Amino acid sequence: MSSGKSDIERQKKVGRWYFGGLASAGAACCTHPLDLLKVHLQTAAVPNVTGAQLAKPSLLSTTVHIVRYQGVLALYNGLTASLLRQLTYSTTRFAIYETTKKYLNKDSQGSVSTMPFYQKVLLAGFSGAVGGLFGAPADMINVRMQNDIKIPKEQRRNYKHAIDGLIRVYKTEGFKSWFNGASMATMRAVMITIGQLGMYDQFKYLLLTYGSGVFEDNLLTHFTGSLMAGAVATTLTQPLDVMKTRLMNAAKGEYASITQCAVQVFREAGPLGFFKGYVPAFVRLGPQTVLTFIFFEQIRLNFGDLPKKQ
What does the pLDDT look like over 130-155, one tens digit per residue? Predict the structure, then answer.
């Protein structure tokens, strides 16, 4: 009986503001190679390490090409920047979303109730906007470090790690260059946070409400809800992700505006150009979303706080 009561209390626990950042960083360590492959496919117009163009690069051919010329560890190029990005961008968006949700989501007994769907969307969008802006410098360095092995050696930036990259960009290109593509990154962050945080909460609610005979607050529910959220997030963000990657990887003055970047993408590949790398994006974002929420839920269940009664 005490064990059952303990399980119920455990499931009522809510996360602390930094749990999302820790969970996202853990997920990034697992999915970083997939993120790197996505960046390579999105910037496929850039010459590769041999100076030649890859003919219709695929996920497999790009992987083989990187491993053959650079080695397996090259799949983890830019990992420090990826971790820095998660510890800034994801910590911020999770902190705002989860902290605000606690105040919007309590009934008179102090227990967590269900937020209306529109509140989840609005709160997730706002959280993503702040997180995207705050994490833009690390995101820019992340894209550059991942793409570095793809360009000729004499043109590589060769950042030692994320902090070195930020310092060198500041010294050589100025403070504003930290925010190259920040507007696109922020728009993408809004959409991906709606797709991930907002939709995960909604899918979890639907599974627990209408699938109560099968789904409980356990690993199966966390996996199913996060997988569906990952699919939504990929579809919402792919066009923005393609342009964000281009803008962040661009040389100074290469694109005068977001519109020019969009026109260039359209001229090169038509409407489908905005979904370049969609498969690896889902292959990366799906597991990343699943791992993030599985890690988050496990941290919440084991180290979270019980709601305080009012």
Answer: 999 999 999 889 888 887 877 788 88
